[in-house]
Structure formats: structure tokens, C-alpha cells
Batch of 2 targets.
Target 1
Amino acid sequence: MPDMLVKLYELPESTEVFKELENKGYRIIRAMAPNKIKVLDFVRKNFSDYWVSECDVAFSNNPISCIIAVDSNKEIVGFACYETTCKAFFGPIGVKESHRGLNLGKALLLAALQGLKEMGYAYAIIGGAEDAIGFYEKTVNATVIPGSAPGIYKNMLYP
Ligand SMILES: CC(C)(COP(=O)(O)OP(=O)(O)OC[C@H]1O[C@@H](n2cnc3c(N)ncnc32)[C@H](O)[C@@H]1OP(=O)(O)O)[C@@H](O)C(=O)NCCC(=O)NCCS
């Protein structure tokens, strides 16, 4: 799972993506401290403890570096974090399986990358792109960083 590089100075236009999702009843918003347990439960239930740990770190940043997608019932359907395991790093990101293919992932990614851009970075690094390399290539023209696997993740404690 290599890392990938994104040019934050060439981020694609995102207004239309957000508008279309809003018309379908979805909102892409920054996570709030009072919702921390709810967000971490969502990540634990749908993904992994590793991602719960990274997401928890995002709640220690100010502003909180976790973006969530919620439906019209205020149910969480996706999340994305940045500036957690390393500075300028994007990830993790996950959309509930039943809600994939609706552009929620793209919107979460663009909102999080905008957050990194506003912190002053020129480039973002997508940490451990796993099976989603095609997603990052397609949505934000990310490129694989040669020789970056396992990279910073070599000390992770796998089960
Ligand atoms: C990767 C993930 C976040 C994408 O979320 P999503 O909401 O389904 O994606 P979107 O609907 O926003 O997709 C945007 C575009 O990327 C494409 N795409 C989505 N996932 C893709 C993938 N794994 N490989 C290639 N292209 C992909 C879509 O087809 C779509 O293209 P289109 O605009 O031509 O239709 C989601 O599949 C997921 O949660 N996967 C499991 C967790 C994971 O792997 N996270 C990434 C780890 S680094």
C-alpha cells in the first residue's frame, strides 16, 4: 500500500459536487467535539481499530481534522481525516458500504484536502492508498510515490 502525492494548488472544483449531494439530503461537515464518540463508533463498526485510533487523533487537532458525511436523518455515512499519523497526511477515509458510488468519498476527500491546503501545505500525502489508488487518481490526479510501501507504516502492529 504505497503513499500518493496530491498537488493542493491544483485541486479540482468542488462546488458542484457539494451542491448535488446537498440536493440528495447529504451534508459534508467538520466533525464537532460533542460527536466524537458517535464518529469513533461509526469508524469502529464499519472499518478498523487502526482507523479509530487515527480518527481519535484528529479530534485532538484544532480545528478538528475530521470531516463527516451525514444523511437527512443526521446519520453518519462517511468520514475522512487529515493531519493525524503524520503532518500533511490525508487519511483514513471511509464511506458506509451501502452509500458508496454517490460521490460522498470524493466530497469528503476534497473537503479534507481543502483543510490541508488552508493549513499552508502545497502538497498532501495520501497515506497507504490500499485498494483505492484508482479513486485518488481519478478524483484528485494523485500519483503514487515510488518506494513508499510500507513507508511510515512499517512499525504498525498487525494482528
Ligand atoms: C474508497 C471510497 C472512500 C470511495 O468512496 P465512494 O463514495 O464510493 O466514491 P465516490 O462515489 O466518491 O467515487 C468517485 C469516483 O471514484 C471512482 N472510484 C471509487 N472507488 C474507486 C476505487 N476503489 N478504484 C477506482 N475508482 C474508484 C468512482 O467510480 C467515481 O468515479 P466517477 O466519477 O467516474 O463515477 C470507498 O469505496 C470506501 O470507503 N472504501 C473502503 C475504505 C477504503 O478503502 N478507504 C481508502 C483507504 S486509503
Note: Residues 91, 93-95, 100-106, 128-132, 134-135, 138-139 surround coenzyme A (CB under 6 Å).
Target 2
Amino acid sequence: MEIMEAIKERYSLRSFSQKEIEPEKLQKILEAGRLAPTAANQQRTRAIVVTDPKLRKGMAEACSNQKFVGEAPAILVLCADDERIMRCGQSARGIDCAIALSFMCLEAAALGIEGCWIGSFDPEQVRKLLSIPEGYVIPAVYPLGYPKEDDGVRREKKPMEEFFVSNRF
Ligand SMILES: Cc1cc2nc3c(=O)[nH]c(=O)nc-3n(C[C@H](O)[C@H](O)[C@H](O)COP(=O)(O)O)c2cc1C
């Protein structure tokens, strides 16, 4: 699938089929994250794949009780150590994790697997549940799996003229 096709295909899925993700497809998704760029090529990002039913239930609770999180057959948790704020004022690890997860979302979408980026979670609850060491930041959670059904509808995006300006703001 062309990259632009995967970009157009991807959407936030909150209703998962119980079909497991095939190990070879999960490997492809993880490979997309592994190959993502990182600030100064420091590669501090780690992706935890949560499949254990008890842990998935705990993850749903840690994600502001968003029940669908625990209903996905797998949950990706992106974390990274050695946090540093770049000269631009942004978190290098937050951005590293966001790029890795974006690459993974797109590879997943190309394979017919969708998910939902989760920002509403308690990182300390997630840390405790998954034994993530102190010093690691936890920027993103992504439950993923096959759709129960896909009606093909995609959320509307703002038009290009509201996104893009030439030269000056
Ligand atoms: C950083 C970030 C955090 C998000 N957090 C949540 C969340 O906690 N719960 C949720 O249901 N959706 C969450 N979303 C999904 C957005 O609501 C969704 O991406 C948006 O409505 C656009 O829809 P689309 O992904 O189908 O294009 C999050 C998305 C992003 C990028």
C-alpha cells in the first residue's frame, strides 16, 4: 500500500473485534517504530505490547476508564528514558515516541489494523501496572486490533487553506 493510502485509511478505532493480531503483522508494526527517527539518533524509545487480559483491564482503568482500551487484543505503550528538553522547548522523548507511534499506526493501517491514540491516562498508574522504571516518560498509549466493522467513514479534516500558509504566518 502506498503511504498516502495508509494515511487516508487510518482512523481512530474504538470498537475492536476479538481477532488476535498475527505475530508477523505485529512484528511489522513494531519494525516501523524501530526504524523511526529519534532526536540525535539516541533511540531511547521502548514499545511495550500488552496482551495479558488482566493487564489490559488495568490499562483501561489507567486510561480514565475508557473501556474500549481493554477490549483491544493488544495495547502499545510507548515510553523512553533519559528525558531531555530540546532547544525548541519541546520534549525530545515525547516527540521520539510520537513519531515512532505515528509510523506504527500507519503500518498497522496498511495491514488493516486500527487503533486509537490515547492521551487521557495516568502515567503513574501505567508505570506501576507495567513495572516501567522511574526516569522513563510515558507519552502515549495505543490500543489496536481489527475493527468489529468499518463503515469506511473518516472524520472530516480542515481544508488545506486552514492548514498551510506560504512563507509567513
Ligand atoms: C495526542 C492524542 C490524544 C488522544 N487521546 C484520546 C483519548 O484519550 N481518548 C480517545 O478516545 N481518543 C483520543 N484521541 C483520538 C482523537 O480523538 C482522534 O484522533 C480525533 O478525533 C481525530 O479522529 P481520527 O483519528 O479518526 O482522524 C487522541 C488523539 C491524539 C492524537
Note: The mean pLDDT is 97.
